[in-house]
Every structure is written in structure tokens, then in C-alpha cells.
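Subject: Interface between my chains keeps coming out wrong

I've been trying for a while to get a sensible model of this assembly. When I model each chain on its own everything looks fine, but I need the whole thing in one frame so I can look at the contacts. Pasting all components below, labels as-is. Any help appreciated, I'm running out of ideas.
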Amino acid sequence: MKPVENTESAGTVAEDVGQSASEASTQSGSVSAPASITTDVLPSASAIDFEVPALPTEILLEMYRKAVTIRLMEQALLAAAEEGQIGGAMHTAIGHEANAVGAAYALRPGDYVTCTYRGHHHGLAWGMDPGRAIAEVMGRSDGFAKGKGGSMHFVSPEHGMMGANGIVAAQVPHAAGLALSSHLRGEDRVAITFFGDGALFQGVMHETFNIAAKWKLPLIFYCENNRYSEMTPIWRTSSIEDIFLFPRSYGMATMQIDGNDVEVVHAAVSLAAERARSGSGPTFIEGITYRLAGHMAGDLETYRPPEEVEKQEAYGPLNVLRAKLKARGIDEKSLAGIDAEVDDLVDDAVEFAEKSPWPDTAETYRDVFVESGSG
Amino acid sequence: MQRDEEVFLIGEDIGHYGGLFRVTRNLLDEFGEKRVLDTPISEQAFMGMALGAATVGMRPVVELMYMDFTLVAADQIFNQIAKYRYMTGGLLKVPLVIRGQQGGGKRYGSQHSQSVDSLYAHFPGIRVVAPATPYDAKGLLKTAIRDDNPVAFLEHKMLYFTRGEAPSPEEEYLIPLGKADVKRVGTDVTIVTFSFCLLQAMEAAQVLEEQHGINCEVVDLRTVEPMDTETVWESVAKTGRLLAVHESYANCGMGAELVARAYEEAPELLHAPARRLGMAPVSIPVSRVLEEEALPWKEEIIATVLEMARQ
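Reply #2:
Try treating it as a single job with all components included. I did that and got this:
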């Protein structure tokens, strides 16, 4: 299968990617029908049809640089984890890059984002510095949270990044609260929250769907459907596999898109943000994507055959983006040049993190409470 | 709410109905739907939403209809709200109040009568306030709302039916968190308590003085976290005897904590073994006689003080 080069409609792309997932699941010997994600938005009142305008080439090049930065940082982090430099659970977003980059470019400064523990890509896409990000994962003093949050708790309020979260779906009501603040204050900020397909089965997700839809909060629910809830495909856990049916049952508008294509993601999130800012309420976007690395560093990946990953690799966001750029006359050499520059940048970031001092042990006891008390 | 537009109330039946216990009555009319938000029965979601709004400087006051529902929203309260400042290395603060009523005495049974003060106090990152008098409730609630930290403000359903020294509505005063108040001066035994147990302790002290000639000093902690042990030690320095009383479970409770701290920090003050009284280790039963048996109220306080006085 070849990378998608020219996206006329998001539905076509989703269908194509969906079929590859179906085949892969069949190959892995599934006893039940694999998730059908070939269905685009159902013809109902909440269906949204949207165009995908071509972004300027220079923006696409910026996005490519950002996506490669994410990819290479994640690979560097996996290498550091192999070396024993990183403790605990670290979840990389290799394969998810387009969801974050496309969305970040569609939103404005002042908007808010919350995300899951698979959130490195959102952090970088929203502007966090790779060196400080790696330092955080390594528990060093130059980390954004002085090493207290680590991989699962990326946060940078100055970039609107209001927190990744270690508990599945817990960040979703936080984004609804950020959207609520915008609504109560009469601001035009929107909030976007990223979660995986596995989060669909947490109660708080459904509670938040209901409140956000009823109160018409300026909120975007973005599901990065990477086909696996940790190590389990959706057809093993749910009798409903078309996940957009859940938000739709709460009266919410939904979109199902190719989450590996930055232009599609950008267009969908732009539309959802416009709806949010104009008082039309929340939108649910299902970005079909694929996690090309394990659930976490050290994942044995016994739940999927290597051929499935290889097949999906061809559809990976970087390949899709490279194909787009080549179609616009950007040659392989220019792209390789960007790759090399980013490679140096990530090397420097790793070096910065490794040289960053350990936090002072007194830091253990700080930040439990606001010291000054009243505000 | 008049002072700060960032303060809003959120919870179940607090607006149009005015709150199950009428605590927020008329506030919707006065402040409107953007300040008093009626939610669906979705404790996890509205608790998490309060966190989100608080991280950008709003000051949500969340009502849990029964503080027992803390357990429904436990992830958002203990895993999120309590930890958010710490996990973000101090980049964010969470100035919100979780308030509602707890406690026994009205025969609501196992899932609507629990006291959660010790549970809240177990987790770092949340202040815990549990006033007993109207004066303290007003002064502490205002402080709690203005505090930059999350505060659990624990009311008691029995206290909704008591009267006390009421401040004039115009009077502006604040009571700092972490300051205990000696509600009865005495010389023989120090009873440390808070919330509705204060009233029980005051009645017990009256009986102990009139019928047994034992003069108790009653210290109202008012704030459970942080705990004002300084005031407690000052009292124990006079009496040499310490009894902690609360309605949450005695097992792993605030009384156990206070007694342990007494032995660690001020053992020389104790002339007799320090004691604690709390809820018996059972789920709270509905039957009047069973509920009264399980609660650590007046008669149990009197009996325990009499034992201590003999030592």
C-alpha cells in the first residue's frame, strides 16, 4: 500500500486505513470481526461534512520539521530507556505525530490542551522545548516540572499545555473545566482534550460528553484511535466498535478522520474550533491513527504481528507528509536536510538533559501546597 | 461571591432547588446561572471540571450532596486535585473548595452518614476544615474560598439544625486555617475535637463537671489539616491528659494521628495514656439504637474521661 498523497475527502482516507487494520486483525487470527472503521460519519443531523484545503507548503514544511522532531525525540527516549536512564512507564507517540501537529497548528495561542500519558507529541507540538522535555522524563532539575511529573505529566501553562495525565480519561473533565472557564468569563478560548480509544470505556468520559454537550462548552474531544487500548483491540472489549456512536448518543457532532494526515487533522480541528468559538458546542473527532511503537518502553508486543506494524508504517504520518511535500516539488535532499538538522537538535537536547543536574533533595517537599496561602 | 467574580458554585440541585440541605438557597436568583451551576449526577466530571477551571484562576466551590460521594469522585479528588500542584512542579495551583455535609445522627445509613475528614487528611495537598459553630463556619469558609490550595470544607448534617452565635451579615472577618480554638477552659482533661463532636464534647464536659467534678478543657481544632498541635500541647501542658474525639473511624483516624504526635512531640506532658474515640469499625447502621451505639458521642466521651481521670 502506498502513502496517501492527495486527500480529496477525509472519509476516503479513513476507509483506506480502516481496511488495512481489518486485514491486519484477520491475519493475527481474530475470532470475531475486527473493528469496522470504514464507516464515515453517519447521515444524521450531527454529521459534519468538511473540505480539506491545502495548507501552504512552508507551513507543511514547518509541520514536517515538528513531526520529525517528535519522532526522533521519542526514539532517543526509547534508547535512553534501554540504557536504563528512565524509570517507570514511558509511552511514546511514534505514529501519532500528525494528530498533535495538525491540531496544534489549527488552534490559537491562549487555547488549552490536556492529554493522556502518551503526550510527548502534544507537548512538543504545542511548543515545549525538547531538551527540557527530555530532562523532565529523566527526572532532572531542568525538566518543566523539576522532574516531579515525568513522562506522564507533561505540562507547560505558557503554551496552553495544561497537563498530561496518568489516569485514563481523567484529563477529559479538566479540559471541560478549562472550556467552562472560557464560557463563564466570556472569552473565546477553546479547549481540546486528547485521549485514546481505550478511554471511551471510562465512566468519566461519558459524564463529560453529557455535560459538555448539554452546556455547549467550547471543547474539542479528540480521540486518537490507535486500535489498541494498551495491549487490547477494541473488538475484545466492546460490542460497539464504531466509537463515534457513543458521543453521538449524547447529542454531539462527530467527525471521523485520517489522523495520520496533518492537513486533514488541521482542517477538522479548525472546523471544530470554529464551531466551539461560535457557541455551537463540543465536537468529537476520531482521528484514525496507529501506534507504531509499543504501548510503553519494554512492551513485548505479543498482541500484534510485525507485518501489521510494517503495513501501517507505510501509512505513518511522516511518510504521508513526505509524499505530500514531494508532490509539491520538495525533493528528497531537502527533506533529508531537515531530518539531519532535527537529528542534531535532538542530540543536543539529549545532551542538555543528561547534563542537567539532579534536583536538590529539598525539592521533594516543595509544591505540596501554595506556600503563600491566600490569593 | 460578591467580592470575587471568579467564584462560582457547582453541584447537584444547588441552583433551582437551592441544595438538598438548602445551603445554597436563593443564590441562583442573586448570582445567575453563570455563578450557580446545576449539574447532572456526575461527580467525577464536575469535580474534574472544577480542577480545570481552578488551574486558570477561577475559584470553584463544589458541593457534594453527601460527602460520602467523595468516594465516587475519588480519582479526581485524591489523584488529581490533591496532586496537581506537586506533579506540575508548582506551575499550576488549584484554588477550589469541596464542601458538603457528612456525619451520622439522621439515620441515613452506610452510604450517606460517613465522616471523611481522616480520609482527606491522609492525602498531602488538600486542606481539611470542619467547623462546629456558625461563626467559625462563615469565617473559615471565606478563608477557604480565598486560599490558593484545594480545601475540603466539611459540614455536618446535625449542625444544620443547631444555632450558635451568629455574626451580623455585614461584619467582615476571616478565620485563618490551621488555628484551633479553645471552646471551654478547664484543668483536668483536654478533649480535642471538631465538627459536631464539639457539641457532644461540650455537653459531656458539662455533665462531667456537674456530676463528677472533672473540669475538661475542650479544644476545637476547626482545621484538621493542618492540625494546630501547638494549641493542643499548650492545653495538655495544663491538664496532663489528652482525649481526641471524632466521628470518622477511630482506626487510622485523626485521633490516632494526634495521639501518635503527642507521644512523638510532647511525651513529657502526658500524665496518663492519651486516648482517642472515633466511629466503631462498622458501616453505619440505620436503626436509631444501632447508629447511636456506633457513634462516639456524649455518653462514650463521659465514660472515657472517667476512666482517664482514674489513671
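Reply #3:
Confirming on my end. The first strand of chain B starts at residue 7 and ends at 11.
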